[in-house]
Amino acid sequence: MRTFLTYLNQQKTSPNPGSRLTLSTRKMTEEIQAPKKLPGNGHEVIVDLETIHHSTPEFDTAPSTHEIIEYKYSTAQDDIADRLKFASIVLTVTCPINAQTLGEAPYL
């Protein structure tokens, strides 16, 4: 689950002009996507953890087939581990991938 920090300029919206900035949090989640077919036997599952930073490139995995699963944001370690469970290839920019997340990803 990702927590976004949203700053609201209260100078324009609040009757209290002394209160210029308020911090609020909003939780956003993306459902964990399951692949149509598990990796192996000539099939790859490519998981892109952060499409907010880039477009997912085109892939040629011939002679293997492949499918791509995309997530806009991935930050919480639990979310990352869940999203990598069926991945055989991972694309990431800033997501921390550690021994715990890799340990729960049998196809990597």
Which terms summarize this structure?
108 residues, alpha/beta, three-stranded parallel β-sheet, 5 strands, disordered N terminus
Summary, kept brief:
16% of the residues lie in helices and 29% in strands. It contains three helices and five strands; from the N terminus they run βαβββαβα.
Q: Overview of this structure, please?
A:
With 108 residues, the chain is of the alpha/beta class. Helices cover 16% and strands 29% of the residues. The chain folds into 2 domains: 1-29, no CATH class; 31-108, no CATH class. It is built from 3 helices and 5 strands, in the order E-H-E-E-E-H-E-H. The longest helix is centred in the last third of the chain and has 8 residues, at 77-84.
What is the CA-atom radius of gyration, in angstroms? 19 Å
Number of helices: 3
Helical amount: 10-25%
> Averaged pLDDT, please?
77
Q: Give the strand order of the largest sheet, numbering strands 1, 2, ... along the chain.
A: 4-3-5
Question: What is the domain tally?
Answer: 2
Terminal CA distance reads 23 Å
Number of strands: 5
Question: What letter string, H or E per element, gives the SSE order?
Answer: EHEEEHEH
- Which class do the helix and strand fractions yield? alpha/beta
How does the major sheet shape up? 3 strands, parallel
- Based on Cα principal axes, name the global outline: globular
Taking pLDDT < 50 over at least 5 consecutive residues as the criterion, the unreliable ranges are 1-27
Strand portion: 25-35%
